[in-house]
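User: My instructor asked us to take a sequence, write out its structure as tokens, and then describe one feature of it. I'm not sure where to start. Here is the sequence I was given:
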Amino acid sequence: MKAELENGIRALLKKAKEDYTVGLIELKISVSGNYEPIQDEIYKFIDEAAFDENLVLSPDNGVNVLYDDDGFTRIFIKVYDTDRLFDYIKELEKRVQVRENPQVLLSTLNKAITMLEDYNNMYGDKHNKTQEINDLDEILKLHQD
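Assistant: Let's start with the prediction itself. The structure tokens for your sequence are:
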């Protein structure tokens, strides 16, 4: 497999990682020439390169190599960013915990209000946080009903 193709695929995967996408990431690269005969080698390389970036190939046709009549091979890649998926799962778990136990949210808001009031008292009008305290207090009242 050509080094340019390998470098292009690695750059594409690295860019996908930087985009911070949750869910399916679909990538496409086009190269001149017919690469269909070595599609197994391409699949293996992409699988290893994706693993290096903490990306996992989609179980549903993660890599497709198609040669067309224009003399180009188009490589379609479908991956998931495992780091982002785990971050998203953690966020969903937090949401479920708050919904199941609204007292956690109320306790957190009360602590935030106390901290802001302490900050206000310590620094006075120089760093006035009264509006933030009022906003948090309103949210707290909404969740007490």
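For the description part of your assignment, you could build on this observation: Residues 102-123 form the longest helix (22 residues). Try explaining in your own words what that tells you about the chain.
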